[in-house]
Description:
Low-confidence stretches: 1-7, 333-338, 360-388
Strand order of the largest sheet: 1-2-11-5-6-10-7-9-8-12-13-14
Number of helices: 11
Helix content: 10-25%
Number of strands: 22
Strand content: 15-25%
Oligomer: single chain
Amino acid sequence: MEGRTAGDETVVLPVDVKRIGDFAFKEAEKGFLGDWNIQLARDGKDATNLLQAVEKLQTSSVPVAFPTETVYGLGADATRDDAVAGIYKAKQRPADNPLIVHISSLLQLRQLLNPAWGSESNPLHGEKQDPIPKIYHLLISRFWPGPLTILLPLPSPSPLAPSVTGTLSTFGARMPSSRLALAIIHLSGLPIAAPSANASTRPSPTTAAHVLHDLSGRIELIVDGGPCDVGVESTVVDGLVEPPVVLRPGGVSIEMLRKCPGWERVEVGYRDGAETGVPRAPGMKYKHYSPTARVILVHGPLSIQLVTNYLGTGSNIGLATTETWRIHQLTTPGVPSGEPNRKAGGALNRSRVRRAIASSMHDVASNDGQCHTTAISQARANEEDEKDAKFIDVVATDLGTESATIARNLFSALRELDGQGVDVIFVEAITAIEGHAAAAVMNRLRKAAELEVQI
């Protein structure tokens, strides 16, 4: 993908973070990342590509896509309304869905909250009152840089573009742990507003190829830093209310938060389905993470009866397996089967299975939390017809069994199965209720799913 264009508009520039230069980090404030610097290898191609992205962020109203440790972000100068408007335009994102502001150091964040804050000011020495609320200090010490977003009071006057926050009196801030993302933010000298770099409602992108698929021709530049490590977006917390709440689950679990003093009583403040009203954080109000194919989230065993009932007259399905599902659970005697590749994120496994006779009725739980009885059309099963109508083509991929691995592979798997042209994607729900990504995985799956089925 090196340096090529798509539709003569979108350029993909590879950047190897190990080759851009030397990072000099200054550990301060009880382990907080106070400030740092980078000495660029200016004669290298990777540094040149990096600086091209930085210049675009500083001067253009068209956003730039770049990787973080969670997903690829679509970044723009958070202080310029025309630049932020470019994000909404490229993503076709609803205007009331707030954006997270990404910073590269605590010094930058404090100066954003209080422009008079100087580089020599040290809140631990009592020189000035820290503009970062005390409730967040231990969280920052433990989880930053990393996949955690904190809600902060919007300063007055605010240096942020109004479109970053809409009508809200707060904004979300995050310091990513990706060194490439940190370098881009640091060298730009700007707070960067950056939602996920996908078309609105689509699965979040974890590779540059995903970004190119969704936004080709809508943006000018994608920084290709390889695949993302975490795979789901950051956790969003609000410590300005009592008790504190999690507004979006992500890479930091509620169990991890409760181990921090002051956060023992943190509560869940989100619903896994779409919500109403003005969203306080990204990912709360609208349908998200959805491929073109219907997604059905299944709690229980895999069976050909289940698949036939929900496939209707379609003939192609995708399977995203986690703990127990295997393709052979769909087969009947005389029909050859494959076995999913149990290496998480491995090659797609293909098979053809014989259709069952569909049940006429079936109870399903939909994302509004209610139980509905839905009429299912009879599958085509003419005993005299030996054509494809009696069979279902299956494409399967394994997400893994650990919540962190599933999170890393989830969005990529949904995109890959969707690209195979399947009619329905059946996803095996995970049974884990703990683990640093379990809640985030189920939240994303429920927002992507058209139906949630309990067997």
